[in-house]
Write a structure and sequence with these properties.
single chain; 3 helices; 9% helix; mainly beta; 7-stranded antiparallel β-sheet
């Protein structure tokens, strides 16, 4: 058995790393499991017929458990060879890693039978891409070993790669080898495509067992999808799409254009666009149209699925599922909206109505973009307000009575007073003499 281990190291030592190509994918089953349920045997008590990988005490499994039913392993590279010390059925990986997939192949028929299983096939399936399970992104590799002469005709086992981000794997060209005990290692065809690689005829006994090995590259997904939004007045030309238009008024119709672009290394399914309109814009039912590779004639959504474009279910309420998209594909969706009564807008003058389109994918989250329409609200000036009453004038001050002049005193005034008395007495005397 140690010779087999040494031969695994030897057979991978000369492998060269070449360009990777995409692996055809199968549905994901995020688990390490094997099947089908079948009778088990031991090295001391081998099977009385051709059957594969059913012994429970074979140290060639290199994992300390020695159960051949767990026959698919994954391992890191150590330079140009497989690192046997890292062989496991669950391996954490990082972006850009090149790692090994290995499957043990052993016909458990007793050597005394001299029995051979013909046209033994090794076939590997993988998940299309990783799935998020219990906080980790996992991707399965399932290996099948089959022969028309075996019972059961096919056995399988699954190993798992795990990572902290979404990823896929790709087969490294020309890396597949069949390393059988006591035989010269040989290159085999890609075991991940078609019916797999034909290993030829395999006799019962550990002396004819061996390992299928090949390399895969880990490719982390990139958030390489986008959505762009623009707007124009209804009826304008192709050069009039803008991020913002101004001068809209009550009753005007505007048209929005949403462009989804995909450039990633994965297929994204059930891509959904949802475009919530702000107050002041009203969706015009039946105006949504779609253009993509499936619908190159830009049909109305209502003609494809009437239930997807109603007053209560449309791109502005529940969103629009625009389908599945592979690498370097895109889609365009357009719809119209009417400017409602501008008098209901919040502000006098210019109101900026901004709406946001959001693209939603199943596993990579969301992206968004915006476009805006400026709507003017003309507010009538308030009528002349009632004038304030004239203030009550202060009452006119009443005239103050003139006070008699106080008598003047002093030497001059006394002299005049005395002179007046003398003059009066003289006039009185003259008058009396005339009367007499």
């Amino acid at each position: 058995m140690n010779k087999t281990i040494r031969k695994i190291s030897t057979v991978v030592a000369g492998l060269a790393i070449t360009a990777a190509t995409a692996i055809p994918f199968a549905s994901a089953v995020a688990s390490t499991s094997w099947g089908p349920s079948r009778p088990t045997f031991t090295l001391e008590n081998p099977a009385p017929y051709n059957t594969f990988n059913s012994m429970t005490n074979n140290p060639a499994m290199l994992d300390g458990v020695n159960d051949e039913r767990d026959f698919v392993k994954v391992a890191r590279a150590n330079g140009s060879i497989m690192d046997l010390g890292t062989m496991t059925n669950r391996l954490p990986v990082a972006n850009g890693d090149e790692v090994y997939v290995a499957a043990y192949v052993h016909n458990n028929a007793s050597p005394s039978l001299n029995s051979t299983a013909r046209n033994v096939m090794a076939k590997f399936d993988t998940s299309q891409r990783s799935q998020l399970i219990d906080g980790r992104h996992v991707l399965n590799v399932t290996g099948h070993v089959s022969s028309v002469d075996a019972n059961p005709a096919s056995v399988w086992d699954t190993a798992v790669f795990t990572a902290n981000a979404p990823f896929s794997i790709s087969y490294v060209q020309n890396s597949a080898r069949w390393d059988a005990y006591n035989q010269t290692p040989v290159n085999i065809t890609d075991p991940t495509v078609g019916s797999g690689a034909n290993l030829g005829n395999i006799r019962g006994c550990t002396q004819f067992a061996g390992w299928v090995t090949f390399r895969v590259k880990i490719n982390f997904d990139q958030n390489d999808f986008n959505v762009a939004k623009s707007v124009r007045f209804d009826g304008q030309g192709a050069s009039d799409w803008k991020d913002h238009i101004s001068g809209a008024k009550t009753g005007d119709v505007v048209e929005f254009r949403l462009v989804y672009t995909q450039t990633g290394n994965v297929t994204r399914n059930n891509v959904t666009l949802i475009d919530k309109l702000p107050a002041g814009l009203e969706y015009m039912v039946g105006t949504s149209r779609i253009w993509n590779a499936t619908y190159p004639d830009h049909p109305f959504v209502k003609d494809l699925n009437p239930a997807s474009d109603t007053a209560t279910h449309n791109i502005t309420t529940n969103g629009l599922n625009i389908g599945n998209y592979a690498n370097n594909s895109n889609a365009l969706v357009s719809f119209k909206a009417r400017v409602t009564d501008s008098n209901l807008l919040a502000n006098c003058g210019t109101n900026i109505l901004t709406n946001t389109v959001e693209v939603i994918t199943e596993t990579e989250g969301r992206k968004s973009d915006t476009a805006s329409v400026a709507v003017d609200r003309v507010c009538e000036p308030d009528p002349d307000p009632t004038p304030d009453p004239d203030p009550t004038p202060d009452p006119e001050p009443k005239p103050q009575p003139e006070l008699p002049e106080l008598p003047k005193t002093g030497a001059g005034f006394v002299g005049i007073l005395g002179f007046g008395s003398t003059l009066t007495a003289a006039l009185y005397y003259a008058l009396n003499r005339r009367r007499a």
